[in-house]
Amino acid sequence: MTGTIIENLSGRKLAVLVTFLLLCQVTCFLIGGLVAPTPANAQNILATVCKDTTIMKNDTTKWFYNRGKGSCKTVHLGDMHTDLSETDVVFAFQMPVPRDDRILDFSRWQQNLIGVLQLDLKYHSQMEVKPRSTITIDARLAYKNKGDADEDWKLYTRSVEKRHLDCGIEVKTEEYLYNCSAIPLFELGSLHHDFYLLNIRLPVDTPDMNTNIGHIQDLWLTVINQNGGFTKVWLSLKTIFFPCIIAILAWFWNRIHMLQRKPVLLEKMLLSLGIALCFLNMPLEYLTLHFDLPFMLLLGDIKQGVFYAMLFSFWLVFAGEHMLIQDASAQSSLKQYWRHLSAVAMGCISLFIFDMCERGVQLRNPFYSIWVTDLGTNLALTFIILAGISTGVYFLFLCYMVWQVFINISQKRQSLPTMCSVRRLHYEGIIYRFNFLMLATLLCAALTVIGFILGQVAEGQWKWDETIEIEYASAFFTGVYGMWNIYIFALLVLYAPSHKRWPVSENTSDTQNLSEEIEFSPLPSERNSEISSLTSFIRKTTVD
Amino acid sequence: MYKFTLFTYYLIVYFASYFAIVSYLVEGSKPVLQGTVEALFVDRSQVIYPGACKVINSTARQLKICRKDPGLQIVLSTAKSQAIEACEQYFQYDRWNCSLVFNGKEKKSIFNKIYRETAFVHALVAASLSHAIAKGCASGDLYRCSCLRTRRKYNTTQLKSGRCGDDFKYAKRLVKNFLDVKQVSSDAVAEILKQDVLIGIDSIGEHLKEVCKCHGFSGSCTTKTCWKRLTPFSSVMGLLKKHYHHAIKKKIVTSPAKSPSPARIKIRLERERNKLIYVQRTPNLCVSTKGRVCKDRNNCATLCCGRGFTVSKKTISKRCRCKMENCCFVSCDMCVEEVDVFTCK
């Protein structure tokens, strides 16, 4: 009879494999920490206040910018201007700002662009910012490419948006500043063009529009984009992992097809987990270097969501298949787990809906935010809370099942002394390795959580001494990404069916062992001789 | 020792000016740091000086810096007016009202010796300069702001990979460079002024506000990016004024035999790293506060030096019923109001 590879692997080989995988893991961590720069980069841009003297204010071919030929006439907001109305004032942000005496341009490696608006509001006793006041922003985004003329801006998108102002002030003294929280303004899923220009107006179309926003002193925009260097490292990792996982998947499936029986549930689950990982590993970012693909942010979320859903389902099934109390004759199927899996499905679907409502709509309007309207906020919160509850329920289920598995195993362990010594040693080894893998899973999960928490607490960089600097955030990403790849790689290798025959059950002269053999033979697991020996052992003892 | 270094300094300046085609000595006798701060603060005229810096009579070295970045002269003039305005506004009701001379005597300039006020002005001008430069970087007026990559391996071709966020670091470096902070640390006076300048620069750094944005998986905080945000200059003034009040007096032994070596001064200053240092006690300013207007009774008690004050009624027209108009401008009515005016006897 044959088992999975993990049961038949000698301790030495297992140690070699584990060491190799650990080395890979450390490499992944170090690549992120030493080679890659920070994952994202933020740049502060101060608004240039431009004077719009044109008569047609809705003209989207007229753009205001502060650098290059045809730059706008600037206005000082502090001075009194009786000749200007609100439509004549344009806040211009030309990005990126020049650095190191060079006019920079965005690179497609930078992937995405997120804009956050910050207001410097001065306190005036007669013009206090009322709580829960909203600001209405007429935002227009334009783009330009290298080689275009200075004034050759083309409209990318325009929208009139509302945002909540969340401002507080400690000392109410004239000229002091409000402490306002940053306002997320836009999210571009693709950074396809070289230069962008944001023109903001604060319209007063109705008498109460933009009246309670205090005295604007300065407007700042912070643009965040993925770091080009980080994308390169990330993409190289993906390019390496993708073929590796595909190869091991093919090998795994080939092994299963060499057997006479149909694949069991656990093997199907492993296969789909591998496919989900391949989906995640697919280096689609190469396409963004040539095509404008605004859906990449959304797709990234979906890819991760599918992977985590598969991983969570796999853990459930894995624990369930080792539950030891199920009906041994029935071929287990996914239907048995519908109650447990519905928690996963529920969580994923609610997160998906939330994502579609936020990032899905942003495909059409990058300035859209679900959090602006009360209805949207409630909707978003509902879905997030639903997802949270589902996750909680799922983990309760999972913990309960794992606990049961351990209880059953310890019960069965008591019957071990009645078996012959060779077989007992072997079974103990199997239990040990099962525990080992459970431990590995727990370790991976714990490392992810700890790494995440450390990342929240610590600053971006860790300095060990003057020469070695660890870019922690990047190391966390590449480390965690590498870890789950390696984890699934190990699962695929160790849970593939083994070709090795059991030496113990074939040639032994031990009479006690022989009697065990006879005891074993009428069991269904023996007839279906290729099932995992762990389960067969467990089922046997249940019959006992 | 002091005289000797000054001599070598003249020598260097002399040769530097000899080689530069257009070169102007700052005030003739003072080191660059002192000279530049004084030039920026004292000169209230709108004179445009020849050379790339325009706002001040600059040294060859400064001219070179200004020539490299044409935006710098605008930034300099912003920094200048910002410092003067803030000083006059925040010291309106203090005994020293940000005047350039003590008690109205032309000979008693605040720059003659290192008074508490001199120390403060150095900090103020340095703070204003770094603030204006950081702002210039953010608005794109300055072209040479550097990304200050932490690791050397990012060469220029990988420019887009490095971190480019922190404008203050660049501003700090440029101000130190412009004021020639490194060069002047050869005698006690220079060492003290250097510290005052550094405190001014760091006040801006202390007032940077960290803001974070989560943009990870589904907008969660799996990826979080934080950056430092520059606060308006007026919010730094409070801290600078606190430094002014907590400044420490240091004695400089002038006789050459006892004169402490720069190293020893450094060690002594180390203990008071975060305090403004001055050398000369400010003359009694009570003489000149006669006729000054004070804010309220409490303020008058200090400002009038116990001589008492008169209260008079006065009708003034004042801005009132202010409201924001057209999104961005304040429009106010003029109201005639009767107010109490406190004047020192």
From TrEMBL, chain A:
GO-annotated biological processes: intracellular protein transport; segment polarity determination; Wnt protein secretion; Wnt signaling pathway
Transmembrane domains' residue ranges: 233-253, 265-286, 306-325, 337-354, 379-409, 430-454, 474-496
Pfam families tied to this protein: WLS-like_TM, WLS_GOLD
Source organism, top-level taxon: Eukaryota
GO cellular component: endoplasmic reticulum membrane; endosome membrane; Golgi membrane; postsynaptic membrane; presynaptic membrane
Its membrane topology: Multi-pass membrane protein
Keyword terms of this UniProt record: Cell projection, Developmental protein, Endosome, Golgi apparatus, Membrane, Postsynaptic cell membrane, Segmentation polarity protein, Synapse, Transmembrane, Transmembrane helix, Wnt signaling pathway
Subcellular location: Endoplasmic reticulum membrane; Endosome membrane; Golgi apparatus membrane; Postsynaptic cell membrane
Domain Wntless GOLD: 48-226
One GO molecular-function entry: Wnt-protein binding
Keyword match Transmembrane: yes
Domain Wntless-like transmembrane: 227-499
Main location: endoplasmic reticulum
InterPro entries: WLS-like_TM (IPR047843), WLS_GOLD (IPR053936), Wntless (IPR009551)
Its biological purpose: A segment polarity gene required for wingless (wg)-dependent patterning processes, acting in both wg-sending cells and wg-target cells. In non-neuronal cells wls directs wg secretion. The wls traffic loop encompasses the Golgi, the cell surface, an endocytic compartment and a retrograde route leading back to the Golgi, and involves clathrin-mediated endocytosis and the retromer complex (a conserved protein complex consisting of Vps35 and Vps26). In neuronal cells (the larval motorneuron NMJ), the wg signal moves across the synapse via the release of wls-containing exosome-like vesicles.
Quaternary organization: Interacts with wg; in the Golgi. Interacts with Vps35, a component of the retromer complex; wls stability is regulated by Vps35.
Family: Belongs to the wntless family.
UniProt name for this protein: Protein wntless
Lineage of source species: Eukaryota, Metazoa, Ecdysozoa, Arthropoda, Hexapoda
From TrEMBL, chain B:
Species: Parnassius mnemosyne
Subcellular location field: Secreted, Extracellular space, Extracellular matrix
Protein family: Belongs to the Wnt family.
Gene Ontology CC terms, in alphabetical order: extracellular space
Keywords: Developmental protein, Disulfide bond, Extracellular matrix, Membrane, Secreted, Transmembrane, Transmembrane helix, Wnt signaling pathway
Keyword Transmembrane helix attached: yes
Function: Ligand for members of the frizzled family of seven transmembrane receptors.
This protein's record includes keyword Cell cycle: no
GO molecular function ontology, one term from the record: cytokine activity
Gene3D superfamilies: 3.30.2460.20
Segments traversing the membrane: 7-26
Matching SMART domains: WNT1 (SM00097)
Predominant location category: secreted
A single BP term in Gene Ontology: cell fate commitment
Protein's name according to its UniProt entry: Protein Wnt
